[in-house]
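Hi R.,

Here's the chain you asked about this morning:
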Amino acid sequence: MTGNRPAHTPRKTAPPAGGEAAPEASVLRLLADYLRPHRTPLLLAVLFQIVQTLASLYVPTLNADLIDNGVAAGDTAYVLRHGGIMLAVTVVQLTAAALGVYFGARAAMGLGRDLRADLFAQVQRFSAAEMNRFGAPSLITRTTNDVTQVVTLLVFGLTMFITAPITAVVGLSLALTLDVPMTGVLLGAIPFMALAIYFIVVSMVPASRVMQQRIDSINQVMREHITGIRVIRAFVRDDHEQDRFSDANAELTDAALRVGRVQAFFGATAMVFGNVTSIALVWFGARFIAEGSMQIGDLIAFISYAGLILGSVMMSMGVFMMTPRAKVAAGRIREVLGTEPTITDRADAVRELPGRGELDLEAVTFRYEGAEEAVLRGVDLIARPGQTTAIIGSTGAGKTTLLNLVPRLFDVDGGAVRIDGVDVRDMDRALIAKTVGLVPQRAYLFSGTIASNLRYGNPDADDATLWRALETAQAAEFVRAMPNGLDTVIGQGGTTVSGGQRQRLAIARTLVANPRIYLFDDSFSALDTATDAALRAALATEIADAAQVIVAQRVSTIRDADRIVVLDAGRVVGTGTHEQLLETNPVYAEIVNSQLTLQEAL
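And the predicted structure, written out as tokens:
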């Protein structure tokens, strides 16, 4: 199953009519879309399940014949001959059942693999807006738990939806050949069990939807607890976090109990109907045998058929119990797959640039989805090769948002962001990534080695390139001091190194990628003054020909910039050098005076 598996081509799954995908989206439609590449194992599974079902239905007839004509007549040869036939049929049944399960599992696991691959590929296409809309915990749940629900339904449903109808139709036909009145007793129980199945489905759909949402919630609490463990320890909020988890856990438990109560009630109800039916069959059969109108073998065969028919109905009920939750899960999966990313590449997107590395923001306006006011309003900014443009402003002024518009993490609502005169919305995103290097405010490192993290933007970089980037980023000294140097393992998120080391490694990673435009989003905040100064001096030499845009809170970091842009409440309120702004811009002067003495400012 894991050998030379066929290549999987991601596919688009349209959401249900009405725009946004509903949680009640058809699980059958999702299965149909994703089972097409697995037709061969699916058809083999169906074929072997049919063989297994027919073989199991043939055994009671052989058994009845053996009892009536062999055991009752004392014919040992007849018993041995028909016993051998029964054994052969049983071997066929077991072999077909095993092969049916095997090929059914292959189809189901292949479907699960393809679903997870498509969900991951779709999330990779999402912009920050879609990520914010769904949330990381929900996307993780949809890729893991929701897919598992759909696959589990397929594994069990593939067996029951094939065997149950065949067992019911053929079993009832064979039962009719044995005794018509007793078949009426059996038929009388089926509508009641079907009614129980209907109420199960109706009751469990809303309960299952709530349960999946509770799983999202508990995943969110767990994720926040794990990633924020240092903050929790620092503020001694262990009890508070335990209470949060307990609340989420209790809500999930309550939702699971509601689902369990529905399953238990209707499952027990169906079992009662089945047992009452069996008792009625034995009672009527005993009377018919006493009257001489029915043989013992026929009664045993009839009870066997009744057991197979009622058993298939009970098993079908189990599948129907899974269906509502899988139906909700399928809707949640299709909601992700059917969401069109707001940021996509045009068919005629620009894939080559002159190579100058000039950045222009013109009258840029941006508003976050659901926000009442725009974060940025009419912002103009330029950055030229060989020059450093700095952005400074109070918290919430829109500095980080402004930088995020350049690599097109968001699209502007008004105005334009241009690189070498080309609007980024007209550029291929791979070209943007090659041209623009962003060192985010929160430096994030992936689990792996230092070398694998540094090569993230340039997989072909050799060790010499990595060390040169580390030297520039003032990180070479502490990397050399590590036990394995470049091969030192870094924990997820970079939690095994300090904040300052993490920032310097993130800067080195961007230097290895060698873009033409560098965006530093408060990337020196965790550095001491001496390291900050040494790093900026090294950058001035190493990337002297590139355009640099630096967002910083410290005036000392940006005072030597060629151009300083002052943001206030989403607007540019001043542009110039440190000396010019200090004399003419009260907002900048206020920031400087809050950090530096008069002598230091001058």
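The domain at 27-337 is CATH 1.20.1560.10 (ABC transporter transmembrane region fold).

Let me know if you need anything else.
M.
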